[in-house]
Each structure stands twice: as structure tokens, then as C-alpha cells.
Amino acid sequence: MDHPQNSNRIERLHQSLPTLELEINPDLRQASESGQNFKQNYRNGDDVLTFIVSAFYAKLIVILGIALPVTDAIATREYDTYDAFYMYLYLGSIIFLLYMYMIQVKEKSAQDFWRRTADSDPSYGIKKNQHVRYGSFYFRMGVTGFGIGSVIYSGLQFGQYFELSSQKDCDNVLKAVKPLLRIIFALMQMLFIFSYSNFLDMQRSKIIARFGLMHMIATNVCEWLFVLIEETQHDIYKSAKKRQDNAARDNVSLSEMDFKFLNSTTFTITKQMYEHKVNCLQSNIMEPILIKSEPYLAPCTVEYSLLCAVILGLMWKNAQYYENTDTRGNNSPEAEEKQSGCNVIYSSRQSQFSVDCAQAHKGLFTGILVLAVTVISLIMFFELVGYKEYQDIAILQVNAWEAVLFGMGTVAAVFCIAALRDIGFHQMKRALELEHLLLLVTQCGVFMYFLFQIIGAVLMGLNKGKGGIMRIITPHSALIQSSCQTVLVLDAWRRRCSTATQMRLKPGRQLITFLLVANIALWMVNRLKNNRSVSHPNQMDFYGVLAWNIITHVTMPLVVSYRFMSSVCFYEKSQFAFSDVHVDALCRSRKSEEDAERADGASPGLATLFPALAQSEVRTTFSNFKGRFCTVKAGAPDIIARR
């Protein structure tokens, strides 16, 4: 038997041209590899340093965002430095967003070029129709709604500038430029979050992308803090002034706590600033509109800034997962593997929005009935609370109905947890969803707000104040309902219908639909009634005007956001856990199972949904939402699982 080396020599003898064999010195190869490793380590070190420095930059901006508005609230005069700081934040964010849109246009042109020149090789060029979305469509629509409320609020502030007189202390152009820049920033940020959140287009300037995102995060946090402090200051002044006027009208003495606050330096400075602001107005058109709409529009700015800061923080965190993207948009295997664990949604440019109400009509109509009663209760509250003799009845009836809502929500959540126990539990390695992360964060505000109510009610006693036992029942029921509901959302997140019977019956969907509408009703109660500190006079008597206003304005935006996030989670569960829409997500997340099943002639992901039929010959056909079905052949008559 000839040796392989001898046969290779014989083959070379018959070649027409001579061959030259070169052997690289092992020392040179090792030196080259070590040089490449050094460059890679150096590049990784720069990436980590960029992340750290950008985080420190944002932290410095946020600290200034806390210090400046607090100082402005207690200052004896207005300073232009505060407005210049916020103009720097808005202008920096606007410039970064313009840069992002320019990159988007450039990358789109590059996509068109590669499509025209690489038709023969589909794998060559930028990936087609793949866009990164942070959060579901329902979630992003809610963020857009809050953004529209913020734009309206800033527009009213911009219109107020034209009512100022031309006096030296009144005419300040920054009072018009600041809300105008805020409007531009809010609109551009909405477009960015809703449409152009694709990080694959940023990686040629990772430093600009990371610092720009951190600047936007700091801008949203500072905007959140500014509106929070400003609204707290306004509400404190209005509440204290109203209590002072009521005491003078009824010829009664103020409490010791209120008396000290009304004679404090802080209240005196705030009163002088408001009087100066009123004296600067030439007309009184925009001011009443702004005062009446402020309790409803200002929280939109707080919630919009909070949600945008979280979304942008997730983008900044996930930026490292796209660092291995080449100039043609092709990801390395490591990058794609990391992206699969990120909290993002990959979708095509053309998407459909549909609502499936099968096995949900009872819960839907029950929820609509609850929503109607909630609206009636709120109308009665706002009509009766203006009359002194009916004020106690107005507060008592709305608190009682709020407790009933919490009780129904608790019962529905417990029964829904029991109904979902029979549904298959799907093991997923992905991180916590964005909606669920926000749900856990905003629940802290629910606990804080109602725990302060419980502490005040217990220390005050049942016989003191107004409302009696409802001051204890309502906050206790709120804590129980919130806890049960959060457990339900996190447990139902991993559950999917696994049999044809479950797909037909949809166990628990009636209750989930009811909870969705019930959370919308609670969102209305919190937005219209509880965000006003005067809605709880007993708590204000116990904590005082200053403390209770601070508690309300710090916690209530989180409570409102919790109800919004709960409705988002229940909508996602109602639409996708009880249908076969999630098959596509399973097919994308399990590529190895797809290849194995395709080799056997089976549909990708179907064996995961139907474990009992994993060894059978499976043939599945997917069509549109109305005609989607699966045909299963297992040696017996065909089993058709239709929706």
C-alpha cells in the first residue's frame, strides 16, 4: 500500500507547472495570532470604557436635573441658567436624532444598491425587512398617546408666552424657546421609538450612538424630575391657599402643621413668584386653560418620559450585541445568539393588526359594564365634591366603588390563575419582557402610595376624620389585587395552549379580558381622581400639605403607569397565548429544531406545541388570521384543529 505522501508526489510529477510548498514558521503564526488577540482585547476595552464613561455622563446630568429644579423651587428670583440647562438637553437630543435619521436614509440607500447589484446571491447585502421593535404595538401606541399629551401641554405653555407683557422682568424669550424645543424633541423621539429603533444602522459610530442614547435617557429623566417638582410646587401652593381661604371663610383655626407651613419662608417665596407671574400677564386667556388642563396633561409628560427612558436604556444596554455587524449588515453567529436573548421584537416592515374576540365576549361586556359604572362614579364625584355638604358623600362613594373594583380584580385574578394551570408551560431562555419589567418597577409606586394611606389611617384611627373603615379597606384591597395580578401576569407569560381542545375553549380568556378592561377603569380613577392630593383630605390632615403632596406626586405616576402596563400585558396574553400566532415566534427561536423537523418533512415548531404527536407524520398549513388551521396525520383519520 502506497504512502499518501508518495502518491501526492506522483500526482505532482504529471502536473504541467511546478508547485512550491511553503511552511509558515510556528513562531510567526503564534505572533500573528497574539497580535490579533491584542487588537481584539484593545477594542473590547474601548467598548467597555465607552459604556462606563457614557453612564457617568448621564449620571452627572441627572444629578444636575435634580439639583437645579429643587433650587429653582426655593429661590427668591428666576434665573436663566435653569432654562439654558434644559435647552442644552433638548438641543443635544435633537441633534443626535437628526444624525440617526441621516444614518437611516444612508442605510436605506445602501440597501437599495445591494438589492440591485446582488440579485444572484440572496445572502449578499443587507438583511431585508428586519426591524427591531422595543415593546409590543399596543405598548408603543400607549407611549405615543402619552407623548401627544406631553406635546399638547408644551403647546399651551408656548402659547402662554404671547400673553406676557413687555416689561423687563416679564419678557423672556427662553420661556417660548424652551417649550418649543420640548415639542420638537417629543415628536422626534416618538418617531424614533415607534419606527426607527434599529441598532444595526449605528455601529459605524458606536461612541456617538452610546453617548447620544445616554444623553436622551438623561433628558427624559430630567424632564420627568422637572415636571414632577414643578407640579408638586404648584399643587402645594394651591392646596395650602385653598385651606387658608376655607379656614378664613368658615371662621375656623388651621392645624398647627398647616399654620407653620403657611408662615414658612418657602410658602412666602412661592406666593410671591405666583403673584409676579399673574402681574406679568396682559390677558387671561391661556392661563385658565393651562390651569384646568394641567392636572391631566402634566402626568402625560411624566409617564411619557418614564417609559421612553426605560426603552432607551434597553437600547443602550443591547447596543453591545450588535458590535459584530459587518458593513453589509450580516451578523456574526455570536451577535445573533446574543440578540435572541435581548428584549426586542424582530418584525417585517409590513405588519398586520388584528383583534380576536373568540371566547372573550362575556369578559368584554362585563368589563364594559364595570367601566360604565366607573364613569358614573367619577361624574358624581366631580359634581358633588364642589359642595361642602356633599363632599364627604362624594369621596365615600368613589372610594367604595374603588374597593369593589379591587375586590372583583382579586377574585378574577385568582380564578384565572387556577384556570391557566392546565395550559402547557413553555420553557423560554429569554430575559424578562420589557412590559413585565416595567410592570414590576411601577408596582413599587402602588405599594408606596397605598402603604402610606394604610399607615395614616391606622395612626389616625377609625373615629377620627371622615370615611371610617373605608380608609383601611380600600388600600388593603388595592395591595392584595396588585399582588395577585402581578403573579398572574408573570405566570401566564410562559403558558401556551398545547392541544386542539385548549385552542377551542381558550380557558381563562374571559377573565383576562375582564381584567384588561378593569385595569383601564382603574387607570381612569387614578388619572382623574387620585392624582389630586385634595381627593384625600384625611391623609392631608395627617401628613400635612407639604408631605402629602410630595407623596402623591412621586407615587401616582407610577400607579397610573402600572395600570397601563397591566392592560398591555393582558392584551398581549389575550391575543397571542390563546391562538397559534406564537408558532412563528417559536419557529424563529428554535433554529435547530426547525432544521431537524424540516428534514423529516414536518412543520417547524409544531412538535413543540403538540408533544404527543412529535413522532407522527405532521403536515401543517398556515394562512391568514381567519383561515389558519393545522392538519395532523397519525395513521388514523385526519384530525383537523380549526380556530
UniProtKB/TrEMBL annotation:
Belongs to the otopetrin family. The keyword DNA-binding does not apply. It comes from the Eukaryota. PANTHER family: PROTON CHANNEL OTOP, PROTON CHANNEL OTOPLC. It is a multi-pass membrane protein. It is found in: Cell membrane. InterPro entries: Otopetrin (IPR004878). GO terms for cellular component: plasma membrane. The keyword Cell membrane applies. The chain crosses the membrane at residues 48-70, 85-103, 137-159, 179-200, 364-386, 398-420, 440-462, 508-525, 545-565. Its main location: membrane. This is Otopetrin-2. One of its GO terms (molecular function) is proton channel activity. Keywords: Cell membrane, Hydrogen ion transport, Ion channel, Ion transport, Membrane, Transmembrane, Transmembrane helix, Transport.
